[in-house]
Sequence to fold (1065 residues):
Amino acid sequence: MNTFRFSLRMLFRDWRAGELNVLILALVIAISSLTTVGFFADRVELALARESNQLLGADLLVISSQPIPDTLAAEAPRRGLAVSSLIKFPSMISNGDSNLLTEVKAVAEGYPLRGRINLADNFFKNDDVPTSMSRVAEGIPLPGTIWIDEKVMTRLELKPGDRVDIGMMQLMVTELITREPDHSVGFVSMGPRAIMNVTDLPKTGLIQEGSRVSYQLLLAGELKKVEQYREWVKPQLTRAQRLEGIRDARPEIRAALERAEKFLSLAALASVVLAAAALALAVRRFTLRHLDGCAVMRSLGASQNQLFYLYLYYFIALGIVASTIGSLIGFAAQQVLTQWLAGIVDTELPWPDALPAVQGVMVGLVLLLGFALPPVLNLRSVPALRVLRRDIGLSNTHSVAGYVLGLLALSLMFIWKAQDLKLGLYIVAGFITAITVFGAIGWLLIRGLAGLRHQAGGAWRYGLASIRRRAASSVLQAVALGLGLMALLLLTLIQDDLIKDWHTSLPADAPNHFLVNIQSDQVQAIQTFFQQHDITQPRMFPMVRARLSKINGKSVAAEDYAHDPHAERHVRREFNLSWTDQLRSDNQVIKGTWWQDGTQDALLSFEEGLAKTLGLKVGDELTYDIAGSAFSARIENIRKVDWDTFRVNFFVLVPPGLLDQYPVSYITSFYVSPEQASVMHELVRAFPNLLVVDVAIVIGQVQQMIQQVSQAIEFVFVFTLLAGFAVLYAAIASTHDERIHEAAVFRALGARRQQLSRAWAAEFALLGGLSGLFASAGASALGYVIGEHVLNLQYTFNPWIWLIGTSIGAAGVLLAGMLGTRSVLSTPPLLTLRNIG
Amino acid sequence: MSDHQVNHPILSAQALTKQVSIGETQLTILHDITLQVNSGEAVAILGASGSGKSTLLGLLAGLDLPSSGKVHLQDVDLFTLDEDSRAALRGKMMGFVFQSFQLLPALTAIENVMLPLELTAADNAEKVAQKLLQRVGLASRLHHYPKQLSGGEQQRVAIARAFATEPRLLLADEPTGNLDSATGVQIIELMFELNREHGTTLILVTHDEVLSRRCSRQIRLADGKLLQ
Fold:
């Protein structure tokens, strides 16, 4: 207890005397940038999840082919979740003699829980094609009314106030839907659509035993509560029921979200690396400055044990205080950031979790205890004899072993923060390799460079000599600065690639319409139609409907996959088989080989995820039932499909020519500008059998989301940059005392200010350039690994990074160094020498 | 103050030898030193620079280990103890005054004086420190940092610190080495006064003949050998 109080007293005294400035600053900046990133990433993640949930209309859906028991809905309010429901079914809607098969949604009060229904503003004023003017619906259709979409309106030639027949009931058309949630989740629901009130449903008499109906329970609320509900409901689901969140529903959004999350984690990790580097430097300075004090205490009777606990408590207290301050600053900064961002993007960010604050304090403590404490605790073994002989110091101030514990702690921290084992491990391995390699090369280079000093002139000679004399601290500085810069360059490279990749996968003219059910004899006519209307000729993909019947000669039934509802659905439903001889660029063979041109063999190419779900591998023999006849083929390869693009892709492909005798239809996707929207009406009138699927809204939403994520990422980057400055500051401060002494001696010996400042400039430039070189090499290598293996990016090597990294390193350290040592140069030498005593 | 203690040895060294190896060569810094210091005595260890006097002081204080030989502090054989036990013994029995003052720069004058008391968890640290600083004439400088004090003032603080634990033995290593001569004289006066007041045994390392004559006995070292 006494030692504890003594520790706190010593801590207070050191703080009061300004001894802890560098250490606290490094720690506070590091922790605040870490928590800013953490808090912000957390909020952005929540916002993105919520944003994307607008596509679903809820945070979580329970979907069933049977009515959903009331118990599931009743549990939701008990768990603090909002709840609503809908029933979706296909039905004929008639206006006099015209009939149209429509996807009808009978919704309950509260729908939608996320997102909104937009209604055309001018529906009552003008029954022509609606413009983009729309308003948000308040509530749901009143009983006795129905809201229809543009397709229903056009095909049935409806006006507001018209009555339509649906089942045994008549409903009045009151609104035109321009946008609705869950509009595009899955292909099946892409036809004409209408929304009615669920209380009218029994009167229609449409829902009977055996009707094709989808019952949906919508749930929304805090992420944690939703997840708890998910866990609660999962074991109770019957085979007819399944859960769907946005991630289950839309692969392209899932991919974008996951990458964004990984990147934000990466940014947070980079801050940790920077924090560690800054601390290592600050701690070295701390250790050197406390050598004498410890020797005095030893001579005054302090035991090693006493000094051990003195600094242990000291650093725990310091860690808690600095981390708490850092976390608070981080929280405040993130609030400001959110305000700023809110002005730019249209998302109300939900409140963050407290977790980033806890993580901030934990990281601060782990960093200090694991990374800073080992070298500090070495202080206890400072020989008491140092009080008589100043030249006796610590034998192992630079002990590698001292940092091993820290690295280990840091690695665990990383893996925890990354929340992604693979990313965490890659980062840990990358940075540990970097430390080792940088350290070794740095040591050799510094020795080698120093050998050049006899050839070098003037300032360079002193600069080189200075680096050589401080070899150990020079290596530490170069490694720490190198790591810091590497973290920043790595983020820059990956951020750049990530954003570029998103923009290429979803360019402004990404296909926003799908055309389904094109018959062979219509292909030519449709192409001509496109030509006439100045729409780029899209590629037509043939497809044949088929049902999987046998795997390796053994019959399969949906029931065999009862344990896996996902697989069961795949077996139950019909697949689209398509053919091609060319592997597209957004497809990549990961197992087996692509087939040769002109092959006549019955081969299959399977999508990776589906193959995994069904437990299939290369060489398996599958039999499909196509229009009553059997078609058998062997899996030749497994393909990875880039689902981020909104292009037509198939789970199963075969070589051309094999399926010619079966009934074939075609599918295509293309871009239609908003001005050409009316062309689609013409197309539908000309080819009434075609199903036009408009995904422009989804694409727009995804593009907007990507825009937001890109901005978020850029903002977060600025904060990581701040942590970089902490490293720079700590690096310059770490040799400050040595420089003061050096300057005094040199100037006392008659060196001019300019000579000294030139020598130091040379030293700083060399040190910075070296760090920049290290950083460029490390960032290129680690960027490649993370890009390829974690984020699945097409990584592009950027040769400029070498030049940029080295120049930024040299210029940055030179500038910071010269600014930091200005005061040293202007202090009269006698004053300095006297102070040193 | 306690005459009956005179002639009782408080510290004795037997055949102390210190060798260091520099590369292949063995360098003997101290040769076979045997000496005895009685309680209440003031002994000067005198010698030119490099004669080995600081090394001898380090050994007598148990700050360093000899190549051979023994040091007894009262009846305790110093080098049979481990480093921590020697430190504890130092804390209890010895005070130090160094050439370079060795004040902790982050601590104020009074905190520097309190430090040895805090290490032993004494509860009257502040009162004792305040009194001692008043005694050395720094009553108005209690809360100044070392860098705000002159060299002489810093050494006064160091002297106050040395007496804070009421040590039986005061070891001073060139205490005036970093001071101008006038200040040096004042410091020495102060040290001897306090020494008398507290009845402390003093071992003073110096190269200054005049200063050494203030002590009751002089031990001369040259090339690591005793010249007595």
Summary: The radius of gyration of chain A is 34 Å. Chain A has 23 helices and 22 strands. Residues 125-132, 183-189 of chain A have pLDDT under 50 and may be disordered. Chain A touches chain B through 32 residues (CB under 8 Å).
